UniProtKB/TrEMBL annotation:
Keywords: Repeat, TPR repeat
TPR repeat positions: 11-44, 93-126
Signal sequence residues: none
Biased composition (Basic and acidic residues): 119-134
Region (Disordered): 119-147
Name by which UniProt lists this protein: Uncharacterized protein
Keyword Repeat in record: yes
Gene3D superfamilies assigned: Tetratricopeptide repeat domain
């Protein structure tokens, strides 16, 4: 089987390359690479790897002060994570946190508080119930939160 534009391995490579560009501060290149990965709709819009890329594109938009676009990406990732993983999964809560920080930057303090409280309460439930391994999700390649 050949690997090319529509292959899951290619998607994974593009996601990781986008993250490398992001880490190097090459934000336009990161944006283009994430968009290229998403354009093929290789894994489906509700696949966790696709949602990771959508979330990371939102983070990239934040760093570029493209706040409207960032909000759209975070909302899309959040809806997908909730559907695929549930509202208290660590990846879902990470995106809730990202939205909260974005709303804070935008001066939307009520929305920021709502999202950040939701993320905190979800994280506390995770800890109380002993669910999820924080280090497992935190160590995922190409995973980040809004700085």
């Amino acid at each position: 089987m050949t690997q090319g534009v529509g292959h899951p391995v290619t998607f994974n490579i593009l996601h990781n390359l986008g993250y490398v560009y992001y880490e190097q501060g090459m934000l336009e290149k990161a944006e283009e690479t994430y968009q290229q990965a998403l354009a093929g709709k290789i894994l489906g819009s509700d696949h966790v790897s696709t949602l990771d890329t959508v979330n990371n594109l939102g983070i990239t938009y934040c760093r570029q002060d493209k706040l409207r676009e960032a909000e759209e990406m975070f909302q899309e990732a959040l809806a997908g994570y909730e559907k695929a993983l549930g509202s208290d999964h660590l990846l879902t809560l990470n995106t809730v946190n990202n939205l909260g920080v974005l709303y804070l930057v935008q001066g939307k303090l009520m929305e920021a508080e709502k999202m950040l409280r939701r993320a905190l309460e979800g994280s506390e439930r995770q800890a109380e119930e002993g669910r999820g391994d924080v280090s497992e999700d935190a160590d995922r390649e190409g995973k980040d939160t809004v700085p």
